[in-house]
Design goal:
It catalyses: 2-C-methyl-D-erythritol 4-phosphate + CTP + H(+) = 4-CDP-2-C-methyl-D-erythritol + diphosphate. The protein contains 7 helices and 11 strands. The chain is an alpha/beta fold. The protein has a 7-stranded mixed β-sheet with strand order 5-4-1-6-10-7-11, with helices on both faces. The protein has a two-stranded antiparallel sheet with strand order 2-3. A two-stranded antiparallel ribbon has the order 8-9. Strand 2 and strand 3 form a beta hairpin. Helix 5 crosses helix 6.
Length: 232
Amino acid sequence: MSNSVGAVIVAAGRGTRMGTAESKQYLLLQGKPIIVHTLEVFQRHPLISEIVLVTGQEDVDRCREWVKAYKLDKVSSVVTGGSERQHSVHLGLRKLGTTWVMVHDGVRPFVQEEEITACYEYAKEIGASVLAVPVKDTIKQVDGEGKVLSTPDRRSLWAIQTPQTFRLSELIMAYESAERDGFLGTDDSSLAERSGIPVAVVEGSYANIKITTPEDLDFAEFTQRNRGEVQT
């Protein structure tokens, strides 16, 4: 299928900022693991035909159990990630068989269906796309001693989210190039940009948070309740 779309959901990190023994992606939100909420968004989306979940080696078995328990039949593989997020994504990309790929953080469960659709449409038109929001705060560029160097124009600054969408073959080439050169990017689009792939920004929502701290989890509970999407 020439326009088939897959998703690589990355949940291999073991963040320490949550202050819990459990990894953040497996903490419960309204009685369900955060990663399951995220997977369900892509499971429900009509564009998505295949999902690869990348997780830590010690979490593969329980993730496979959740895939069965929550009937996430678009998940074709649950694979062990690497030492860095970039390595984890690369491993996931190799398991996909679609034309397009969306790379998404496992701890962003509030991405909306229309945002996923818009990311795909922009990627088809431009070459690649990233979901993002305009920066609300004034940003300062600071040197190593804490001295302010400059104040960039806020109108040109966007906070980048996920999903980030690419033609699968092009992103794999960008990853292989980065690996050969020992380049470690901060996100997938930085590797695409490095390879000359044009990337469009798609305006998303400030609610599409990455749950990394206890405060984020509190906000997530509040958001989930307000949406009336509590599922048992």
